[in-house]
Amino acid sequence: MTSAVDTGVWIRRYQPAPDAGVRLLCLPHAGGASSYYVPVAAALAPAVDVLAVQYPGRQDRRSEEPLGDLRELADRVADAVSDGDERPLAVFGHSMGALLGYEVALRLEEAGRGPVRLFASGRRAPSAVRPGEDMHKRTDSALLEGVRRLSGTDAQVFENDELVRMVLPAIRADYRAVETYELRPGDRVRCPVTVLTGDDDPMTTVEEAHAWSACTEGPTDLHVFPGGHFYLNDRAAEVLAVLRAHLGL
C-alpha cells in the first residue's frame, strides 16, 4: 500500500498532489477507513489532490474512541479541512460517508467556503427516512451478519476473531451515528449534488436516491450502476469517469 502523508489527525493523502487545481475530500462507509480510497487517489493524481478521512477507532487511530454522533463527526471533519488551502474542494462520500458529506458541506457553506460539488454514493437522501433501523442495538453476531450481507468487507475479516473484536466498536459506533441522525427542518446545501447508486442496493432504492434533489438548492444528477451496496468496487472505472467529468478533467 502507498504510504500516507498525514494532514493533521483526520486526513490522509496517499498520492499528494499539491499542484492539482482541485481537492477531493473522500469519506468512508460505516466500518470503513481512509485506505479504502487509495485506488481513487492513485487514479486521480496528479490532477486531483485526494484527501481521505480517517475516522477515530480504526487502523492507525484504533486506540481512540469511535464517535457515534454524525454531527460531531461532521464538526471534526469540517475543522480538519479548514487549513487555509484556497483550492476548490469537492466532497465524495459512500454510504455513511454520503450522509456525513452532506453535513460537512452544510458546515463549509456556513463558513463561506462551500464545496463545488457533493458526490453522494450508495446512500438514500437525508430526507428519505426508514423508521425502525436498529443495527447498532443488535448483538455482535447480528451486527456482523448485517455487515457481511452488504459484501463490502473481505470475508477473511470475519474469520479472524481478534480482528473482529478490534473493528466491532467502530462499526457499531458508525451505525449508531447513521441510525440516530435526523435531518434538521430547512437544511439544504447550495452546491450541486451528483448521486451514484447500485440498482440492487438493499440500503437505497432508486426512488430514495432521487430524493437528494430535495436536499439541495443546486442541480442534481443521478447515475445508476449495476450492483448492490458496494457497486463501486466492480464499477470503479465508470465511477471515476463520473468524477473526472464533473471535476472538469
From TrEMBL:
<dbReference type="InterPro" id="IPR012223">
    <property type="entry name" value="TEII"/>
</dbReference>
<dbReference type="InterPro" id="IPR029058">
    <property type="entry name" value="AB_hydrolase_fold"/>
</dbReference>
<comment type="similarity">
    <text>Belongs to the thioesterase family.</text>
</comment>
<dbReference type="Pfam" id="PF00975">
    <property type="entry name" value="Thioesterase"/>
</dbReference>
<feature type="domain" description="Thioesterase TesA-like">
    <location>
        <begin position="25"/>
        <end position="247"/>
    </location>
</feature>
<dbReference type="InterPro" id="IPR020802">
    <property type="entry name" value="TesA-like"/>
</dbReference>
<keyword id="KW-0378">Hydrolase</keyword>
<protein>
    <submittedName>
        <fullName>Thioesterase II family protein</fullName>
    </submittedName>
</protein>
<dbReference type="InterPro" id="IPR001031">
    <property type="entry name" value="Thioesterase"/>
</dbReference>
